[in-house]
Amino acid sequence: MFVPSPWRADFPAIAALQRQHQTYLDNAATAQKPQALLDALIHYYSHGAANVHRAQHLPGALATQAFEASREKVAQWLNAPSLLQIVFTQGTTSAINLLAYGLEHEFAPGDAIVISALEHHANLLPWQQLALRKQLDLVVLPLDRHGLIDVEAARSLIGPRTRLLAVSQFSNVIGAWQPLDQLLPMARAVGALTVVDGAQGVVHGRHDVTAMDCDFYTFSSHKLYGPDGLGVLYGKADALARLQPWQYGGEMVQMADYESASFRPAPLGFEAGTPAVGSVIGLAATLEYLGGLDASAVEAHEAALHSQLLRGLNDREGIKLLGEPQVALASFVVEGVHNADLASLLTEQGIAVRAGHHCAMPLLKRFGLGGAIRVSLGLYNDSDDLVRFFLALDKALEILR
Ligand code: PLP
Q: Is 2 contained in some domain?
């Protein structure tokens, strides 16, 4: 049965990609953009760009007003208590680097940072390098047989030396929600800071950072159908107060002299230099668009496509899934077939999926793999996209086996 996406026409790139005979199934890497975002960008840039927070003139005032309204919109989207708790960064990667440098003074040799075995490099390497700089222990929580962070193991690995826990909300490789409701309280109980990498989680459903009760939550706009070069870091007020500036320059300074300077509190103290003004304004338009969709219809659509994807993969001989994907994506390998060969035959047939280590090399190694193929869905995908994928997969496997 054909499952259409009621939102497909809202994303002009999908029709353009189809004219190029491309089926886009790499949404966990980045998502296509709704017309509402394109309209907002054209409006902003065609009515007069200006820098924010510094110009006295009208275009500057209007840009600043729109920029700060976007911050308010993001705060509402996450149910953050105040817009002052929303810091704009360049992406999840830069947000986590900001945390790893900005919290460095909090750590002493012998302290422990806890992450998990499934972290994206963005939530592994900043902490690993901090641990090396400060002689800390980097503790890696193992996974259980379902591909979830092992809660029982966490009970013994999160302890009095733990100063910070940094984990993903939703794995970009396994496609599973992680047990944050159990892990975060363990960290809080030992007085550790909690960081949630929401880069994938934020895309599926609405998430309430106040209810989650994490110290920091971060995501990238481009995966949430928004513009590139923009990320969001939410922090609790007292957690943000513990953060020191990481990058220095314009806008973040309160007073500067040749010998010394003082800096603004969050959020501006962590937004050195000219921010991505157009992208910030565009993100608000994207959230406005997403907020207008019927959330339960989106959820049902994502679930229907995901079960079609899993059914198709499970029905085929020799396909092995990584973990137990719950929604949005699935990563797999095929017995006796190299993922790069398969990926190149899929590419030749106009199927845009991701092959390789998915920026999680240590995780792939734990699975005993050098790479895997990942199919990831967006709200504009329909069942015909998957039909085309499976036709191409069968053809490729016929050649390779
Ligand atoms: N964390 C996860 C779970 C991701 O999937 C990604 C991107 O794929 C990132 C972090 C990094 O995001 P960005 O490259 O937008 O900084």
A: no
Count of domains forming the chain? 2
**pLDDT reported for residue 54:** 81
Is 3 part of any domain? no
Tell me, yes or no, whether 1 lies in a domain. no
Tell me whether residue 359 is one of the annotated catalytic residues.
yes
Residue having the nearest C-alpha atom to atom 8 of ligand 1: 29
Domain extent at residue 305: 8-32+294-400
Q: To which residue do tokens 């026409």 refer? A: 9
Does the structure show a pLDDT above 90 at 179? yes
197 token code pair? 């990498």
What the block records as the tokens of 162 is 């733990």
Peptide bond into 267 cis (omega under 30): yes
| 200 CA → ligand 1 middle, Å | 7
Residue 92 Cα to ligand 1 middle (Å): 6
Ligand 1 atom nearest to 119, measured from its CA: 3
Encode pLDDT of 333-378 as tens digits.
999 999 999 999 999 999 999 999 899 999 999 999 999 999 999 9
Assess if residue 85 is contained within a domain.
yes
Q: Give the whole-angstrom CA distance, residue 348 versus residue 342.
A: 10
Mean pLDDT within 158-168: 98
Q: Which residues have C-beta atoms less than 6 Å from ligand 1?
A: 91-93, 120, 122-123, 168, 172, 197, 199-200, 220, 359
Residue nearest to atom 5 of ligand 1 (CA): 172
Q: Tens of pLDDT along 293-324?
A: 999 999 999 999 999 999 999 999 999 999 99
Contacts of 288 (CB under 8 A, 6+ apart): 36, 73
Amino acid 101: pLDDT? 98
Of all atoms in ligand 1, which is nearest to the CA of residue 223?
Answer: 15
Distance CA 387, CA 18 (A): 14
What is the C-alpha separation between 333 and 313, in angstroms, rounded?
10
What is the C-alpha to C-alpha distance for residues 115 and 158, in angstroms, rounded to an integer? 10
Instruction: Give the residue-averaged pLDDT of 233-253.
Output: 97
Catalytic residue, from 359, 364, 373, 393: name it: 359
Residues 244, 320, single domain; the answer is no
Which of 27, 90, 93 to mutate to test ligand 1, by most ligand atoms within 8 A of the CB atom?
A: 93
